[in-house]
Amino acid sequence: MQPRNMSMSGVVDLAAVKAAGEAKAKAEQARADAARQGGTPAVSPSALVIDVDEAGFERDVLQRSTEVPVVIDFWAEWCQPCKQLSPVLERLATEYSGRFVLAKIDVDANQLLMQQFGVQGIPAVFAVVAGQALPLFQGAAPEAQIRQTLDQLVQVAEERFGLTGIAVDGEAVPGEQPAAPVQPAGPYDALLEAAVQALDAGDFAGAVQAYKNVLVDDPTNSEATLGLAQAELLGRVGGLDAQAVRTAAADDPSDVRAQLEAADLDLVGGHVEDAFGRLVETVRRTAGDDRNTARLRLLELFEVVGADDPRVVKARGALARVLF
């Protein structure tokens, strides 16, 4: 199959984008600054190529795409052109050193994702940047063409979305298991209790800060993650005029702020499916920054309800269908 180019010129006017060399220099400086300031720790080169399935797509692709472009390689074991293309993409992922992450999706095991992206033949390569899907090319393209496409993708991600990539530990051996993380200090009973007391007192800002204090040391603390989402939600709805918000949302479906506020009120009022449906519809009818804002608010409300809740599972599927 001959490769078919799918230009990204419709996504952003590349004539208005600064030179790629300047963009790369800025990205390198941003990564260096983040490392000096104790930002996100560097990852092993082996973390730049990952296998993704339907269950992990939200976490491994959509969420990750808010910090680094994710290039998706749709492949299958029986596909000979895939066996030519995949090693090239894997090598380039390491060479680009954190400017993109390569997600490999086996179409035989993940046909729903294949359908959602509209893949007609493999190999097919897409990118997801800040939650937005971009078709790149189809077929086993020459390496020079792949490099040109990746350079364009990186440039768009940096200039349009402010994504400078992730830091990579150059001294780590590819495939080597990372050292066990240092166990965070704890326990956090006092901080969590302080957050609960702040919530009970209506001090939502205080509760937010208390939960954030826990998450600074223990980013995976599920109680603090849930509490933070709840405190932020209650803080947002605290000063709202419910009648005015619902009137504005009903009168103007394109008013993104009104839809977000109405969804918050729906959730606080126990109308979970209404809240999710409203935001999925807002994502469907919007584009650009508005779409991303609505999508991120929906993900926040998922945190409040809980990932295992069947209403969240259903809404995640609806969101994926709208996005892809």
From TrEMBL:
PROSITE patterns: THIOREDOXIN_2
Keyword terms, alphabetized: Redox-active center
Residues in Thioredoxin domain copies: 36-155
Gene3D superfamilies noted in UniProt: Glutaredoxin, Tetratricopeptide repeat domain
Leader sequence residues: none
Top-rank taxon: Bacteria
Family label: Belongs to the thioredoxin family.
Protein name per the record: Tetratricopeptide repeat protein
Source organism (scientific name): Streptomyces lichenis
